Amino acid sequence: MRLLGKTAHSVLCTPRTLAPAGGVRPFWGWLNAVFNRVDYERIKAVGPDRAAAEWLLRCGAKVRFQGFDRWQHDYNGLPTGPLGRYKIQAIDATDSCIMYRGFDHLDGLEHVEEVRLIKNIYIEDTCLERLSKTEKLQDTLRRLEIVSCGNITDKGLIALHHLRNLEYLFLSDLPGVREKETTVDRLQTALPQLDIELDLG
């Protein structure tokens, strides 16, 4: 089934920064919320990895499956095969419209080692708290990048201490982070093995 053509998808799912008069911005927010809706029956039918991949690509993100080098970005090109064959190993949500209401898709993922949250206008502290409290991610997630997410504050970053196996954290262009030294110290104390790279100005 074809959801949207590539061009139409990029137009629909791109966050709008300039809104003409007439309430266009609320429309895009509503549409992006629709893209983030969780269909629990779909998760049961196709498995958590396939359902999560559909959610992420629908929102403009990319996934890399275990055993593959290339990133999958075309919704209509998602591989087919036996249920559970393709496992998500990495998520690149750069410039995507993923938001908190879609994060239930992460619960069944058992192989995610890397997540990139870059230039996401809907990512906020509650998203990082939800991410860090997802039990399977606490075991598998090794690398996390958070860049140019204006709604992230120290509170959201501190919540990452639940990701007990996190090995690398890159933080850049986060204007909401006001106490970077204190926040980094708290994370480093909780996760001594964590390599934190900062570019916060």
Features:
single chain; alpha/beta; Leucine-rich repeat, LRR (right-handed beta-alpha superhelix); six-stranded mixed sheet; 14% strand
Describe the structure concisely for a colleague:
The chain is of the alpha/beta class. The protein is 34% helix and 14% strand. The protein has a single domain, classed as Ribonuclease Inhibitor (Leucine-rich repeat, LRR (right-handed beta-alpha superhelix)).
Secondary-structure element order, as H and E? HHHHEEEHHEHEHE
Query: What is the architecture at the second tier of CATH?
Result: Alpha-Beta Horseshoe
| Termini separation | 46 Å
Please describe the biggest sheet, giving its number of strands, its sense, and whether it closes into a barrel. 6 strands, mixed
Give the mean pLDDT: 87
Spatially, the strands of the biggest sheet line up as 1-2-3-4-5-6
CATH class: Alpha Beta
Protein name: Mitochondrial ATP synthase regulatory component factor B
Describe the structure.
With 201 residues, the protein is α/β, with parallel strands linked by helices. The chain has a single domain, classed as Ribonuclease Inhibitor (Leucine-rich repeat, LRR (right-handed beta-alpha superhelix), Alpha-Beta Horseshoe). A 6-stranded mixed β-sheet has the order 1-2-3-4-5-6, with helices on one face. Helix 8 links the parallel strand 5 and strand 6. It is globular, with a radius of gyration of 17 Å. The termini are far apart. The N terminus is likely disordered. InterPro entries: LRR_dom_sf.
